[in-house]
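Methods — Computational structure assignment.
A single polypeptide chain was analysed. Its primary sequence is given first, followed by the predicted tertiary structure written as structure tokens.
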Amino acid sequence: MKNHWLKHWLKHRDTFLLALALLCLLGAILVPTIPIKRNVHTYLLIADVTQSMNAKDMSLNGRTVSRLDYTKRMMHEIVAQLPCHTRLSIGLFAGDAVAALYTPLQVCQHFSAIHETIDHLDWRMAWTGNSQLRESLAITAKLLRQMPEATKAVYFTDGDEAPLLHAFNTRNLRDFQGGDGWFFVGIGSDKGTGIPKLTEENQMIGYWSNESFAVQPNIAQVTASKSSGRDDSVALSDFDRFISKRDGPYLQKLAQEIGAQYLPGDDTYTVLQSIQSHKSPRHEIVPFSIAWILSTLAGLCLLATSIHRESIRQCKHTFGLYRKQVKSRFFARSDTVAHDNHFQ
């Protein structure tokens, strides 16, 4: 019975394959889908736009660039590699606060708008000259609670606190809640460099001096966010420049205090993998199209019909000749061995 069906199949093989290809193509035209469950990640990418991010100690394509330009390039690369269903917002950090430029948008639907936003990030967007990262965390947590969906904060910062931290302006984060799923991406070199002092027209007039970041020992924590604790003096010599560098140990300690994660910003792929590997608090059921599977199957059926039966017979004939050659060599070798044993 099986042989009968096999012979019938071989005899009408092309007809069956063409009929199957037609059915698959008709099915693909209907664009069938199956429901699948997937994670939905929502991020607020926060760019540090304080003046220390103007320090040029990063490298892109063999040229030295500022930390802010490096941040913008990394943001572009991350956005380009995120899945389409990911939702994203861009935020700014300066002083002791963070501001979101819009509520999270779906990456692919608003791809151009997101990239244009990143392109226009500028240090002149900062509303204050201070950089109080530790103080900003409470504002960020409140901001994320107002988002329409669970959102993860990703800070791109060098970790420079200005004015420098001391006993009066160091916020206690022991009772801080909300840091799970946050990331601090450290931007800058560990060697450090001077911070350019720029005019409103973005013209460089020198470097910030050490005196500009002098700590006022008697300043109260309440007024720390209101006063920069520095003047506008320009460094008179190379030795007088305030040297800024990526404060990785501080960012790592800060992340540990609130249950976040610190990531060195040296490699975009590592940063992307880390933020995506974190568990997502949201899931959604979405249709997954199987039209491409049916189209591929139809193509394979058409390809199979092009293989002529004569080609199959030729393959069988060649294989039969090969088997005969192997057998003849085996028996010839056996006869030789038997003949040698007889004379021995």
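Note: The CA atoms of residues 72 and 193 lie 20 Å apart.
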